[in-house]
């Protein structure tokens, strides 16, 4: 902005002085530094540990991871309604890279065509999750990822039903574990009604329990 000042000096002719005001750019605030270094978000490790995985899920994943490490074996995951919780719980265990080969969240029927060997007739004939269906998903994904075992899960988490049959009601889940030469499967109702988040966690816990029992059965084969 220009400001024009006029003044008389000792009876001399009036002179004009132009003063230019410069607007300096604002100085940005200095970055704050935490004990973890500049630009990093400080988060309490205890708060992080308390939030994920939930205690039951953490314990189930650690049991499976411990068995796999002891046997020098690996696992992969084909899950649907659990939404990745099985994989993330396994990956939260220390040394997960030694036992985890990968996982797929096959939530849509179309994703099963793309990644799990389904064909259009499988979608046309689909009538909800079943142990046989989930066992097929587990076998297909295990073959692709070359893991010792594949954990399979598909259920109805809620809050609404996806059909009239029992296997399409909230809290129903079908589970499977497949190895190269063997498999096991089951289905159950968590009893948690239409609580979507609670069902998702329960589906993951039950899937890991089935995997634990299956691997322990392998460990006990041939023992007197």
Give me a quick take on this structure.
With 224 residues, the chain is α/β, with parallel strands linked by helices. It has seven helices and nine strands, in the order ββββααβαβαααβββα. Strand 5, helix 3 (85-91) and strand 6 form a beta-alpha-beta unit.
Quaternary state of the chains: single chain
Q: How big a fraction of the residues is strand?
A: 15-25%
Total strands? 9
The backbone outline, from C-alpha atoms, is globular
CATH topology: Maf protein
Spans with pLDDT under 50 lasting ≥5 residues? 1-21
Biggest beta sheet summary: 5 strands, mixed
Give the structural class: alpha/beta
Side-by-side strand order of the widest sheet: 6-5-7-8-9
- Give the proportion of residues in helices: 25-40%
> Could you give me the name of the CATH homologous superfamily?
CinA-like
Give a description of the structure.
InterPro entries: CinA-like_C, CinA_C. It is a single chain. The chain is α/β, with parallel strands linked by helices. It has a single domain, classed as Maf protein, CATH 3.90.950.20. The protein has 7 helices and 9 strands; from the N terminus they run E-E-E-E-H-H-E-H-E-H-H-H-E-E-E-H. It has a 5-stranded mixed beta sheet, with helices on both faces. It has a two-stranded antiparallel ribbon with strand order 1-2. It has a two-stranded antiparallel ribbon with strand order 3-4. The radius of gyration is 31 Å and the shape is globular. The N terminus is likely disordered.
